[in-house]
Amino acid sequence: MGREVLKKPRFQAAVFTLFYLAICFVVFSVSLRTAVILFATFTVVLLLEPWARFAQKYFRIKRSISLGIGLTIMFAGITLLIVFLTTPVAKEASKFYNIVRDFFPSVQEAEITSFEVNANIDRFLSDEDLLAQLSHEEIDSLDLLSKDLKNYFVDVMRTIPANPEGLEQDLALLEETLKERSDYLVIVSSSKHKQASFDEIHGIVANYLNPEVAESLSAIVMENAMIVQSQELWKDVVEYFMPKNIDPARRRATYESVRNFLIQVQNSLMKFLPGILEKVPSFVTTTGFVLFFTIVGAIYLSYYFLTVKEFAPRLYPKRIRDIALNFLSDTYKNLERYVISVVLIALIVGIVVGIVVQSMGLKYSLLMGLWAAFTNLIPIVGVPLEIVPLVLLAVSTQNLVLVLILLVVLVIVHAAAFILFLVFMKGYNRINPVIVILMIVVAGQLLGLFGAIVAVPFGIILKMMWIHFFSPMLEEEEQGQLGE
User: Fold this and answer.
1) Which residues pair with 193 in a beta bridge?
2) CA 443, CA 452: separation in Å to the nearest integer?
3) Could you tell me if 396 and 404 are in contact, meaning their C-beta atoms sit under 8 angstroms apart?
4) Coil, strand or helix: which one is 349?
5) Are 148 and 130 in contact (CB under 8 A)?
6) Along the 484 residues of the chain, how does pLDDT read in single tens digits?
7) Which residues contact 403 (CB under 8 A, 6 or more apart)?
8) Which residues, 6+ apart, have CB-to-CB distance to 325 below 8 Å?
9) Which helix (H) or strand (E) holds 454?
């Protein structure tokens, strides 16, 4: 029985397909940057192919010219977005972080990070009362002042090496204590930091601002720059939804339960959120590198894509090539339709969310629009990731009616987006939402955020394997048993 299965053409085609998928997985695992470039290149080609067919059919434009037009428009648009949006988005991200922090409870034992210190400095320098006391020249110099203050606190937060003389004495004593053993390891660390100085801070601020303002601002920076502060806006939300006639003991218990839960969420966020936001300034360099090689790869792959499609079936032995060709053709059509659907819907949702945020009088519409577009590239799981920051932004206004209106609008937007996705994918294979969530979780654990994005395309490939290879084999087995 086992040998008969091994000889089946569909089983052999499945084995070859799994082998090639394993190679792709190894490449993706070894170098994330290479994986992103390859995935981005293939995605660009999948977006260009329908345009090339459309231009040839309706505009009678040659394939090479239509591909050139598509590549130029796509990458020119992406380049302009990166050049002109990275700086304002980075600033909005820094300010929005303050809103996130103001929502959660104050925790005295919270460890301050360099990003939070920078966020505090940005908050001090953007205060309206401060700006009202400055001249135009002083306002123009705030960016330089911000840079100098941040550099100063980087030096303050740098760990001071242990005292060499005291360290030698401690090591000698430790060596005497452990002289009977030879298998020990000594790890020396220091948790000491330099103390911030008012005079040093005032010296920096006085270089840019008038003496009166420099004095007051230096005091504010000295007292509050290295403190994790919060307005605890969560209390307003709990108060709004809590019944007015609730028992005082239950009220206190409810507040305490919500506070403990939010502290746990806050601790989870603080483990990675500052680190992510600190990397925003380096986004331009990394993206530029990826974009350059994606452009080069997309140019070559798009122009030779028809040749690649003809060659792909030759990766399989000749006797199973027809089966492989049907699988590859069906898989390509489904991947193409899925990529187009997801990208279009992500762009539409991002634009709509940005307009909604702006029309409701909320700040950071650019950041929220880009975040909505990005999170919608991750099906199902991306929606809550999109909604949470939007709700926190609305809550920061302390207008809970506005929060409810925003939630209703978001429900309508995503209901329309879901219907639009079904229309785009009509006639094509879709994956069960439960399986999608499981695949995103698993791929996210293996490859991080990039894994969450590629999980569904990988799931489409597996489903096509089931339809073309495994399901027909099982049906043949059942038919054989019925015939006997």
Assistant:
1) 159
2) 6
3) no
4) helix
5) no
6) 567 777 788 999 999 999 999 998 888 887 778 888 889 999 999 999 999 999 998 989 999 999 999 999 988 888 888 778 877 887 787 778 777 777 888 765 556 777 778 878 888 898 888 999 999 999 999 999 999 999 998 888 876 555 555 556 666 666 666 566 555 555 555 455 678 889 999 999 999 999 999 999 999 999 888 877 677 878 887 887 788 788 888 888 888 898 888 888 777 666 656 555 555 555 555 677 788 888 899 999 999 999 999 999 999 999 999 999 999 999 999 999 999 999 999 999 999 999 999 999 988 899 899 999 999 988 888 888 899 889 888 888 878 788 889 999 999 999 999 999 888 888 777 788 888 888 888 888 877 778 888 889 999 999 999 999 998 888 775 555 544 4
7) 237, 391, 394, 395
8) 313
9) helix 433-465
Q: Within 13 Å, how many C-alpha atoms sit on residue 411's CB side?
A: 6
Q: Identity (one letter) of the amino acid at 297?
A: G
Long-range contact set of residues 48-52: C-beta below 8 Å, sequence gap at least 24: 48/74, 48/298, 48/302, 49/302, 49/305, 49/336, 50/336, 50/340, 52/302
